[in-house]
Amino acid sequence: MLRYWTSGESHGKSLSALVDGFPAGVRVDNEAINRELQRRQMGYGRGKRQSLETDTAEILSGLWNDVTIGSPIELQIKNNDFKLPRLQELPRPRPGHGDLTGAIKYLGSIRGVLERASARETAARVAAGALATQLIQSFGIRTIGYVVEIGGEVITPRPGLSIDEQLAERTRSEVFSLDATQDPRIKKNIDAAQQSGDTVGGIVEVRVEGLPFGLGSHAQWDRKLDGRLAQSVMSIQAIKGVEIGMGFEAARRRGSQVHDPIGFDPAQKNTPSLGYVRPTNNAGGLEAGMTNGQPVVLRAAMKPISTLQNPLDSIDMETKELSRASYERSDICAVPAASVIVENVVAFEIATAFLEKFGGDSLAEIQDRYERFLEMARQR
Ligand SMILES: Cc1cc2nc3c(=O)[nH]c(=O)nc-3n(C[C@H](O)[C@H](O)[C@H](O)COP(=O)(O)O)c2cc1C
Description:
This protein is α+β, with helices and mostly antiparallel strands and 380 residues long.
């Protein structure tokens, strides 16, 4: 079973991801992991912290000559901004953070909670996801995450682009959208929020292409891939909603306007769809908790950043006097970064489901099982 844990505090010495259950025989490209870590730090609207950090992952275990050996893989990201022992307590909890609740729950300090609740932890999740991406890429599975809305402004992706063209367009966009020509409008919106001491959220979308039929399962609630994706994405800091395919809009339409008709095109028999074509993909690639040969499409809603330069009311926990919430250096908009995190978190979950179906101890063994399944499924 593929799984991971993370450890580390925002201003501690380092962050780590411990990935367990990763098969042997996968050549790991550390630079590809670092590229994702660097993308997580970028995007218009980030605060000063990102200029202090240059995130790179050091792989401390689980490899021999850059190839996995089947043992746990530890990825470590050092914090340049290590200063935890010198940091003070925050006297007034910030609304929208775990400050108040955590201090009461642990009968302790706000600092002790915020250091771990911080989204700095997502660097470790991205490292784990970028590693898992390398496994699923060996099977032709490709992921892309991008921004489709910031601060209420919709950014419609440029239509008709291949996944390679989409990747190039996303690189051009400072907000990681699929239409860089819309950047000025979006940046103006972020600037306006900053000028009024405020913050913005938004919506990101992830597409996963090249998926075979049958990842996940209909048979038990905790094996349904839609549910598992929602859980892992909802657990990302500041993500408040997840939609798959048409999502909430499906609830407003009639069945004939939602469900994807099934056709057959023998010319596509050798693609992951096995020739079963769907003119639409409103299901977002998942039916009954299983992948259905179509791309998985998932959206996640990020709330606006909680720490405000113009703070909301709060209470001093010592004196119980009404005051303004404490302020810590902060982002104005981290939606582009969220698109990187959601993409990598989704990649990890897909890799987990892939190994459940085709898993073995080594890449060669998994490849064999995968090919054999496709052969049998084509006869079906
Ligand atoms: C990439 C990213 C960056 C974030 N940066 C900040 C930040 O600079 N300041 C802040 O107050 N919250 C930031 N957040 C959000 C908080 O981490 C999050 O709202 C908080 O931990 C409470 O968790 P919850 O929103 O999931 O309830 C960020 C979230 C993400 C995903």
